Structure formats: C-alpha cells, structure tokens
Amino acid sequence: MNKHKFMVIIVLTVMGLFVMSAHAVETSGSASVDVFSNYVWRGQTLSDDIVIQPSIGITYSGFGANLWVNYDTDTNESNETDLTLNYANSIENLSYDAGYIYYALDGFDDTQEIYLSLGYDVILSPNATLYWDFDEGDGGYLFLSVGHSFELPETLSLDLAASIGINLDNEIMGLDEDDDEFTDFYDGNISAALTIPVTENISIAPLIAYSFPLSDDAEDALKAIAEDVTGDDDADIIYGGINVSLSF
Hints:
single chain; mainly beta; Porin; 12-stranded antiparallel beta barrel; globular
C-alpha cells in the first residue's frame, strides 16, 4: 500500500468524522469486529488462516463514512484498509445507496470503486448492487442478493441469505484459462447467521457460509487466486466466524 495514499485515507476520514461530529445530535455511529476462519471476498479466498476485521462508521443525514481493516493472523499484519464514503436514503419501499470505496492494499496496487445499490422492502428483501472499478480493475461486478430474517424466542433471529455475483471484464476478479479478462457469472454464496442481542446496542452473530464458482471462467480465476494465497486450488470454500456489533 502506498503510504501517501494511506495518509490521504486517514485525513479524509478524520475530516469527515470531525465535520459530522459537529452535529452530534443528528449523528449515529457503529463499530464491529468480525473474526472469520478465512477472508472470502466475492468468492475469492484471500487468506490461509483466521482473520480479524474491525470497522467503524458514522452517518449524518444519510451521508456516511466507514473505515474497515483486515488483519491476517497467518502473517500477523494488517494487509488491507478500506475507506467507504456513501449516501443512502429511501423512497417508500425502495432504498438506494451510492458511494465510493478506496482499497488500500499491501503487496498489490491500491484501487478504487464507485457503486450504486438498490433494494426493495418486500419478502426476501431483493437487492442489486453494481460496483465499478475505475482504477486497477477497469471493469465491474454486479451483486444480486435475497435474504430473510426469522424471529426466534428470546429476541433471537435467524438470518438466511443467498447471492450471486457477475464479473464484467474486471481484472481484479481474475483471468480465464486464456489469461484474459472475462464477463460471466462469477460466484454464489449462501449463509446463515444467528443474531443474539446482548444489550440494546450490542449484538453478536455467529455465521457459516458456503462460496462457490458459477461458471468455468470463474472457476479458473478462483482456483488461480486460491492457489496463489493458500497453495490449494479449491474454487469453493466453507467458512465461518462471529460478528460483534455496537451501535451508538
């Protein structure tokens, strides 16, 4: 990760938090820590051991800023820091979210995305998000998901979700067997989480998920990425962990 770019990320985040904290009465925030058996991002296996992923975010009148870090216990170092700036709102049952993500990476060139997400408040909560990497990836990724939360006794909830991803000539998503960028179905993911409220503002949620390729092109790309990171060329993976969340 370029140190100059990292400083830009920190400065932008601090400035955003400072401005929004001036209106603290109308500001909300959140913090969380994920501990997962592997770092899996859009079907890609990006770690060979347990990862710890803290994040902190703040919103004001729909505008938000979030800082997220990946700590790899195999290498004992933080190898990714992401800054997200966004605006989210809703019109009746339709929600929308537009934003910018800066990926600061160790060992790879940093990259940037913009995105637009649309969701509809009906059964299964369908959502579609288009990410466009205008930097290193020079391509897109379309994410489609559904999910449902089942209320359980003692204020618990069982959260089930399923998603598919479509690669749009995005080099960050890997190459096909001819070492070319490709447009094709990419990854599928199914997950189950049990949300357990601890206090009014704190909850924990154990999760298990299964990620798998959706096309031959995606399988070639995901195998190459997994082999480079873990030494194994498994394109699919079962992973899990726990999330601890705080709202304030």
